[in-house]
Amino acid sequence: MRALIQRVKRGGVRTAGTHSAIGPGLVVLLGVGEGDAEADADLLAEKTANLRVFSNAAGKFDHSLLDVKGEALVVSQFTLYGDASKGRRPDFTAAAKPAEAARLYEYFITALRARGAPVKTGVFAADMEVEIINDGPVTIWLDSKSRVEGRG
Predict the structure, then answer these.
(1) Catalytic-residue membership of 93
(2) 72-124 pLDDT, tens per residue?
(3) CB 95: neighbour CB atoms within 10 A?
(4) CA-CA distance, 54 to 69, in Å (whole number)?
């Protein structure tokens, strides 16, 4: 499972008929890969909720989303599994099939909420307009498969 996390001043997502928006917090673009499981979602939810990317009074990254009482906007993004190493058209075969991806996307949202984060979402598999007003800019890449034991 992959997450591209951006610290934002605000973020939003629009689809035909729906709109979700957050104030200061994190926009999480979430991709589910073939073979991902609940453990991957739990790992990334824990990391996301507690990732210290918000500054303290001295300007150092010392506070998490939970510490600053920020919000999260989680948007499904299968294109995080695009492989453009050959040719000019990305190959998305490493992305999970839609039914499994939807299940794990919802599981991640539930896991993030269970850790105390207020979460708003996009609409799975919808064509969306995503607004990201990056703060910093701060952008962090997380991949559940690249976890090194002991370094979590």
Answers:
(1) no
(2) 999 999 999 999 999 999 999 999 999 999 999 999 999 999 999 999 999 99
(3) 22
(4) 11
- In CATH terms, is domain 2-145 a member of 3.50.80.10? yes
Secondary structure of the chain in the HEC alphabet? Answer: CEEEEEEEEEEEEEECCEEEEECCEEEEEEECECCCCHHHHHHHHHHHHHCCCEECCCCCEEECCCCCCCEEEEEECHHHHCECCCCCCCECCCECCHHHHHHHHHHHHHHHHHCCCCEEECCCCCCCEEEEEEEEEEEEEEEHHHCCCCCC
Q: List the chain domain ranges.
A: 2-145
Token pair listed for 98: 């839609």
Task: Please give the model's pTM, rounded to 2 decimal places.
Answer: 0.93
What is the total residue count of the chain? 152
**Which is catalytic among the residues 15, 18, 79, 110?**
79
